[in-house]
Amino acid sequence: MEYLTLSNLEVSVIGLGTLRAFDVTEEADLAPRRQIIDNLLAEDINFIDSAAAYGAAEGRRDKFYLATKVRIEGKEAGENQIAQSFQNFNTDYIALLQVHNMIDVQTHLPTLERLKDEGKVGLIGVTAMVNEAYDGVMDLMRTGRIDTVQIPYNVVQREVEERLLPLAEELGIGVMVMEPLKKGRYVKELKGTPDLTPLKELGVETWAQALLAWVVADPRVSITIPATSRPERITENALAGNLKPMPQELRDYVREETVRLL
Known about the structure:
Blueprint: E1 3-6, E2 9-12, E3 16-17, H1 27-42, E4 47-49, E5 65-70, H2 75-89, E6 94-99, H3 105-117, E7 121-127, H4 134-143, E8 148-152, H5 164-171, E9 174-178, H6 185-188, H7 207-216, E10 223-224, H8 231-239, H9 248-261
Parallel strand pairs: 3-4, 4-5, 5-6, 6-7, 7-8, 8-9, 9-10
Antiparallel strand pairs: 1-2
């Protein structure tokens, strides 16, 4: 597994997102999630992204960098949600705390900065899911108050290439990529079978691996966090973090093949 720097953390280039996939409480549903955690350890994946708003997704896991989010308006409500995250994780330290979708970000930043000063939070970040939010994200990046940004980036959704990714590189801000497969759409909803032949030399075995390898081949990206509820997907996804870097001509091929089949 390749590791890159996310601000000051050495993280596996493939991590785990937990939106919906881990918001379960029934024992029959918990068993495969435990297997997912075992598979993450086996594949040397060391980063899990969660949020209080994801319900039961939060839970303490040793040997991982744990990231979570505050997603609510108001100072007191934000402090309560953050406190709940510490309780859910059963920990006194969270590696990365993010303001989700920039919700009431100016209210929450002083709280996060205080927790960072107290040594309870390692890094401060923000997430944004829509193009309209990127100007505000970039303004905040320029203030020096955040360490990471989390944004969607994939073979079709490439708006961040123009300004946000170059700015992150310039300022040394870590980039986390969500939705590298567009919630699985670019694997499950293609109108045909992609031709993997040109990718065989890299060791790519599935189109999901091709899409993940496409993302992490961008040198401005530190980590991508595909979500899954299927333990076997961890092993499949992890291979993308073990491949040789995808050259630009193959990145172009993966993008064109995906667009052709959508």
